[in-house]
Amino acid sequence: MEDSPPAGAEEWESHYAYTLGLQAYIYGFPWMYLAQLRWLWTSEAGRKVAEAQHRSMPWAPLNNFFNVDHLATPEDQTGGSPNHDTLYSVAWLDLAAEPMVISAPAITDRFWCMQMCCIDSDNFTYIGSKATGNAAANYLVGGPGWHGAVPADVLDVLPRARTPAVLIFGRTGVNDDADGGADLQKARALQLQYRITPLSVWAGQPRHPSRPPHAQVPAGIDYENALGSWITMNRAMTENPPGAAPGIDQAELLRLFATIGIGPGQRLEDRSPATRAGLQRAAKHGLRLLRQMAKGRGKSINSWHYPPPIIGRAGQASDFVTRAAMQALAGISAHDPEQAVYVNTAKDSDGNALASDGAYVMAFDPAAGGFPPYQKEFHGFWSVTMYGADYNLVKGTDNYFVNGYYPRFQTLGPDGNMTVLIQREQPPDPLPDGTYWLQTPDPADPTTASWYLILRVYAPGPEVSFIQSWAPPAIRRVS
C-alpha cells in the first residue's frame, strides 16, 4: 500500500522521515500553499489554469493591486472564508530587488486596513484606520535587511518584511450594501487610489532589471500532491528563507528538517526512496491533521472558538500548527487581534455539529452580553457569516450573513435585542422587529452538508481582542 512504510533495512529510515516529516509539513505548509497562490494570482500561466478550472480568484502582476469591486458572494469560489463586509484589494510584492512605496488616500468615514504578511502567513505590519490613522500617506515597505535612502515624502515607519515575498490583503469597509450602490461606489473610488510604486521609480531613477519580477512556478497547484508539496516548499524556502531578521531565529529547527531533505537549499530528489516514501505519508497525514484543527483551537465559549491570542503571528510565537491550520489553510492569513477578531463555530450549544436540516436560534440579548464590543472611533463593527466546508460562502441562498453596520439590520427588538433564525425553510413573513434569517445549505448537497459560522469584530474592544471575556450568543437547536 502507498501509505505503508517499506519493509526491511529501510523501515527505520522511512519511519524517521515520516515522524519528523509530519512536523516539517506543519512547519512549512504556508510556504507551499502561499507559493501556489502567488503563482495562480500573478502569472499568465496561473491565470490560464484558474480559468480552465473555472476558479474565480484575484489576479494582477506582481507589485500591482487587484481591486475586487464587489462584496464577496457564493459565486466567488476562492476559499479563505471571504467576508461580505469589505472590498478586498490584493497584491503580491516582490521585494528582492528593491522596496515598494504603498500610497493610500485620506479615509475618514469607514474602517479600512492593509494587512501585510510574509510568505509564511505571519503578519509583519499594517496600515489603516486603526494602525496608522486616516490621513493620506505614502509608506515604505522594505525587504529583509534593506537599508538605503528614503525620499522625504515617504514614511519609513513600518518594520521590514521577513521574506522578499509579501502578500497584502487590503480591506475597505462598505457602510451599506443595499443603498442603490452609492456607498459601494465610494468604497470603489477609494480603492482606485491605492498605489504600489517601486522605490526607484518614485525617486525618479527607475531600475531596468534584466529579468522582470516573476512568481516561482510550483510543482503542481494541488496541495494533496504529496511529492509536489515538498518540492514547492523547498523552492519557496530557498527563495524566502525562514528565520530572517527581524523574525525569530529558527536555524536549529531548519538543521533538523534538513536531515530528511526539507528546507532552504534542499533537494528531495537526492534522498533515498525510503525517505521519500516516509515524506509522502507525512504530507498526506499532515494535511489531514491541519484540516481537523483548522476550525477551532483556543478559548471556547458557548461552543464558539476564540482564536489563540497569538493568531496572525503564530509562527513568531513558535506555534506552527496554528500558523499552518488556522492562518494559512483556513484563511490564507489571519488578522492581528487588535485589528479584527474572527470567532467561529461548527457546533450548537449542546456541542453537536451544525446540521443543514436543523433549525437554530441565536439571540443577541443585552441582558446576557449583548453585541460584540468594538471601537467606534475606528469605525468598528461586527458581522456573522455562514460558510461551507470548502471555506466558501454557502451556495443557493442570499441569506448567508448579518452585518451589524448595514442599515437593513438596524431594527432591533423591544429590549434592544436581535434574534437570528438559522434554518433551511423561509420563516413566516413579516418577521418580528429585530429578527433576521440565515438560510442553512441544502442537506442533499454533499459539498455543503457541513457548515460553520464566523462572527467577525472589526476594531474590537479589549473584551474581544485580548481578554476574550465577551460571550458570543449560544446557538440553540429548536428542531
UniProtKB/TrEMBL annotation:
Any Pfam family: DUF1214
Gene3D superfamilies xrefs: Domain of unknown function DUF1214, C-terminal domain, Domain of unknown function DUF1254
Domain DUF1254: 63-198
Domain (DUF1214) ranges: 339-461
Record-linked InterPro entries: DUF1214, DUF1214_C_sf, DUF1254, DUF1254_sf
PANTHER family xrefs: BLL3101 PROTEIN (PTHR36509:SF2)
This protein's name: DUF1254 domain-containing protein
Species, as recorded: Teichococcus aerophilus
